[in-house]
Design brief:
Blueprint (H helix, E strand, L loop, with lengths): L5 E6 L3 H12 L4 E5 L5 H6 L1 H20 L13 H26 L2 E4 L2 E3 L4 E4 L2 E10 L3 E3 L13 H4 L8 E5 L3 H12 L3 E5 L11 H13 L3 E3 L4 E6 L5 E5 L3 E4 L1 E4 L3 E3 L32 E3 L10 H16 L13 E3 L5 E5 L2 H4 L5 E8 L2 H6 L5 E8 L5 E7 L3 H13 L4 H6 L20
Helix pairs in contact: 1-4, 1-8, 3-4, 3-6
């Protein structure tokens, strides 16, 4: 048996890599983790956490406005962007230190620098080579910006989280969840926001009723959506403003942010050169055991471009460690994984969309659109939308979708029911909590025509 420096080398200290390395070390493996930037990865440093902090900060604008209907008279509502960014940075530092301490306490060796895989068992960092029985790739993804004249002037979600000031106006190119979340943040903090799409609707892949509902609500909030546009060029004028030339119009703004998807962060990692098979976008191709085309090299998280969600990466890390270092072979079930868009209003979903379900099932669709109690007093014209998709033959609930306040919190509980194979009859037999929006999921009786 070969003598290696480590049982496991993990490349990337994001959510998945940290979970895998910490558990593997806890089960007795000798583990090192390599990180070229900050510990915590996309979620903690450049994604979920800082973005949600900004979402929370921006939502107070609506709360202040709504409070008047409940008898409050708040005379000052000026926002301090620098204070919000400072609070966000302080929290990220706290979380990063927690990650570092968790790894150290588990006995994981921390190696700083950019990793390059030299062979099936060797990784090089800053000129020094380390060997391991297994290598786990967990480097995540990065924002993708297509080539076009003037691309050097754009920002991505990375830079948007660290702006020195909130822009007075901003153009966001893209219609996915990142685009909608930042549109809500900037809009609520007073910026004029334009969204530019190459397609005809936002949120490709989501249920059509969600896509139509959120489009209507974004328009009500003053966010303009420009559909079916292609990017021609971007240039900066003498006043420092940016002029974005589109196929059918021209827009001028202080900032232009691209949220046009993410790509696996495998460029320069060396894995393709040693024989690891990648797809056309650079994602590592793996089997059900997270193993690549080389038996000693594995991959988890966004770098595999399967379901790019932090809890998925964390669970893939857990499954990897259990399988190979705790004699407990596991496989992650990718069905009925819930997800949310922290737009304003919020979106959450679990299971199949109506369009997906119609391919294989005869359906009953239950649909509700109502004004929640809070809005009837505040006067806000922002109805909540809920939808249940049911297999007519078996009565099994195939999908649930929601747009409205607390959608993510509500759908998380619904996801448990779908994971257990719940039927519409069981939904109907569940007594709701009143008065809540969530009770609508167990009181919908009318089939959508």
């Amino acid at each position: 048996m070969k003598n290696y420096d480590y049982d496991l080398i993990v490349i990337g200290a994001g959510s998945g890599g940290v979970r895998a390395s910490r558990l593997a070390a806890g089960y007795g493996a000798k583990v090192a983790i390599i990180e070229e930037s900050r510990y915590g990865g996309t979620c903690v440093i450049r994604g979920c956490v800082p973005k949600k902090i900004l979402v929370y900060g921006s939502m107070f604008a609506s709360s202040i406005e709504d409070s008047r209907g409940f008898g409050w008279s708040l005379t000052s509502s000026k926002h301090n962007w620098e204070s919000l960014i400072g609070a966000k940075d302080k929290e990220l530092d706290r979380l990063e230190n927690i990650y570092i301490n968790m790894l150290k306490n588990a006995g994981v060796d921390l190696i700083a620098g950019q990793a390059k895989v030299c062979s099936e068992n060797i990784v090089e960092v800053k000129g020094r080579k380390y060997s391991a029985s297994k290598i786990l790739i967990a480097v995540g993804g990065k924002p993708f910006i297509p080539d076009f004249p003037g691309k050097e002037f754009v920002i991505t979600s990375n830079e948007a989280l660290d702006l020195k000031a909130c822009p007075k106006n901003i153009i966001i190119v893209g219609g996915g969840y990142i685009a909608l979340e930042f549109a809500g943040i900037f809009n609520s903090l007073g910026a004029k926001v334009d969204i530019v799409l190459r397609s005809n609707k936002v949120l490709t892949g989501f249920d059509l009723d969600i896509r139509d509902t959120i489009t209507s609500e974004l328009n009500k909030r003053g966010i303009l959506i420009h559909n079916n546009q292609s990017i021609k060029s971007l240039e900066k004028n003498k006043n420092g403003q940016l002029k974005l030339e589109l196929s059918r119009t021209t827009l001028i703004s202080e900032k232009v942010m691209f949220a046009t998807g993410r790509k696996p962060n495998t460029c320069g990692l060396g894995i393709k050169e040693v024989g690891v098979n990648l797809d056309k976008n650079g994602a590592v191709l793996v089997d059900a055991m997270n193993c690549s085309s080389i038996k000693s090299i594995f991959a988890i998280g966004d770098v595999t471009d399967r379901i790019n969600l932090t809890p998925v990466a964390i669970n893939e890390g857990r499954v990897f460690a259990e399988t190979f270092y705790n004699k407990n072979p596991l496989r992650l079930d990718y069905d009925n994984i819930a997800s949310a868009v922290f737009s304003q209003p919020q979106i959450a979903t679990v299971g199949l969309t109506e369009e997906q379900a119609r391919i294989d099932f005869e359906l009953d669709i239950y649909f509700s659109r109502f004004n929640p109690m809070k809005n009837t007093i505040s006067g806000r014209n922002e109805p909540t939308m809920m939808k249940i998709i049911v297999d007519k033959k078996t009565d099994k609930v195939l999908g649930c979708h929601m747009v409205g306040d607390d959608a993510a919190e509500i759908i998380q509980g619904i996801a448990i029911a779908l994971k257990c194979g719940a039927t519409k009859k069981q939904f109907d037999e569940t007594v709701g909590i009143h008065p809540t929006s969530a009770e609508e999921f167990v009181t919908m009786r009318q089939i959508k025509s």
